[in-house]
């Protein structure tokens, strides 16, 4: 008995020592970034690294809500977070604020260059700010036009190549179905990050932009007004979008389309897995995906999305956090996210992976869209820039401002930021 108790005591000391030596890493992800899939990924990492325990902190259903929380945490220099998943629009902000631990300190220049060559170029550009590597890609993304394949086939339509075709098809299907719960074209119109993309899409499709290659403001009031008028016309003139689009967030459109309530939806890639796999989906097998429509005589334009892994500048476990970050930004993890969450990979070779294509057949045609997608403005004050654009569009959709009024205010607001010396 004494020998047994002594053995248990020794075992207890060993276990307590191992527990004391175990490093706990806390990772922040958003509510839409599939915490269930990420938990499986972290479990696999823990299995390979017995001295590491990874905890997940989930917050915010949108990029804006997540960043509001993270701003509070990082401004207070809170060390509780080690690795953070951030939107593609954030690296410049994080570098300017001193929130991200530069990854260059872990990578010799030759190793850094070799690593970055593996990723899609847009994500390399997004994550290097003034020569500093701020983050590494988790998954790529871009906007696509999701559509009710069954309804288009019923009425003899092919996926629309232009916005005029999309509008005519939506009008014909709505008239034919006579379903009061069915809507035509869904887009983001509430005060959220997705509405910035809505504002920019018609500008890009018309051949314009917010800034030139040197980052100087070139957006005109006329281009801004035409973008605002286009979305307003979908409600008031063409009657293919309901009158409450000012309330619609991206995931609202996704959930409603999943219930069978939209013919078209301008959504990011994550929606596919929900349509096909969620138990409450009414559209499994009925959804198609195509490129965003263009204007007559113009070209298709998509908004570049994607999420990146960065290390908190205030982490007390930076070396271990970097090892985890490298795993999370690897092709192995990108493949899991592609299959289980329909997240587009940041590695070009994975768009030909047979396992991924079995789960997401439409990925075969997705790479050119991602390669040609347009980035939102890169600026340390991007949150202010985004707020000006999305509030302007939201006000027009809510009919509290005319397109002319909102366009003038948008350009004036942007000018105050870009021309400030």
From TrEMBL:
<keyword id="KW-0732">Signal</keyword>
<keyword id="KW-0813">Transport</keyword>
<dbReference type="InterPro" id="IPR050490">
    <property type="entry name" value="Bact_solute-bd_prot1"/>
</dbReference>
<dbReference type="InterPro" id="IPR006059">
    <property type="entry name" value="SBP"/>
</dbReference>
<dbReference type="Pfam" id="PF01547">
    <property type="entry name" value="SBP_bac_1"/>
</dbReference>
<feature type="signal peptide">
    <location>
        <begin position="1"/>
        <end position="20"/>
    </location>
</feature>
<comment type="similarity">
    <text>Belongs to the bacterial solute-binding protein 1 family.</text>
</comment>
<protein>
    <submittedName>
        <fullName>ABC transporter substrate-binding protein</fullName>
    </submittedName>
</protein>
């Amino acid at each position: 008995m004494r020998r047994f108790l002594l053995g248990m005591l020794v075992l207890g000391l060993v276990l307590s020592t191992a527990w004391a030596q175990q490093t706990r890493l806390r990772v922040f992800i958003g509510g839409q970034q599939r915490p269930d899939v990420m938990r499986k990924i972290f479990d696999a990492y823990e299995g390979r690294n017995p001295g590491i325990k990874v905890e997940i902190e989930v917050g915010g259903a949108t990029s804006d809500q997540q960043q509001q929380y993270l701003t509070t945490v990082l401004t207070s220099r809170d060390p509780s977070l080690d690795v953070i998943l951030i939107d593609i629009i954030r690296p410049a902000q994080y570098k300017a604020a001193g929130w991200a631990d530069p990854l260059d300190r872990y990578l010799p220049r030759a190793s850094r260059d070799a690593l970055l060559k593996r990723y899609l170029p847009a994500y390399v550009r997004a994550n290097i700010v003034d020569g500093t590597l701020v983050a590494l890609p988790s998954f790529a993304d871009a906007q696509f036009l999701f559509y009710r394949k069954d309804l288009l086939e019923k009425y003899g339509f092919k996926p629309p190549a232009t916005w005029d075709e999309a509008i005519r098809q939506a009008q014909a299907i709505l008239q034919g179905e006579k379903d009061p719960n069915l809507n035509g074209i869904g887009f983001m119109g509430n005060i959220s990050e997705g509405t910035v993309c809505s504002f920019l899409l018609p500008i890009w499709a018309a051949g314009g932009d917010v800034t030139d290659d040197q980052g100087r403001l070139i957006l005109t009031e006329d281009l801004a007004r035409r973008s605002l008028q286009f979305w307003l016309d979908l409600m008031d003139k063409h009657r293919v979008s309901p009158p409450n689009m000012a309330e619609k967030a991206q995931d609202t459109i996704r959930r409603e389309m999943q219930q069978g309530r939209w013919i078209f939806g301008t959504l990011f890639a994550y929606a596919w897995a929900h349509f096909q796999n969620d138990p409450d989906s009414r559209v499994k097998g009925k959804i198609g995906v195509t490129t965003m429509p263009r204007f007559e005589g113009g070209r298709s334009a998509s908004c570049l999305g994607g999420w990146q892994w960065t290390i908190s500048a205030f982490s007390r476990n930076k070396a271990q956090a970097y090892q985890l970050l490298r795993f999370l930004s690897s092709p192995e993890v990108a493949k899991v996210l592609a299959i289980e969450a329909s997240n587009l990979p940041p590695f070009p070779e994975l768009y030909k992976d047979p396992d991924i294509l079995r789960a997401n057949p439409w990925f075969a045609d997705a790479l050119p869209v991602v390669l040609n997608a347009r980035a939102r403005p890169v600026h340390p004050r991007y949150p202010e820039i985004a707020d000006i654009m999305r509030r302007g569009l939201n006000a027009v959709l809510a009919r509290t401002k005319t397109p002319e009024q909102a366009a003038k205010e948008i350009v004036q607001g942007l000018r105050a930021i870009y021309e400030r010396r």
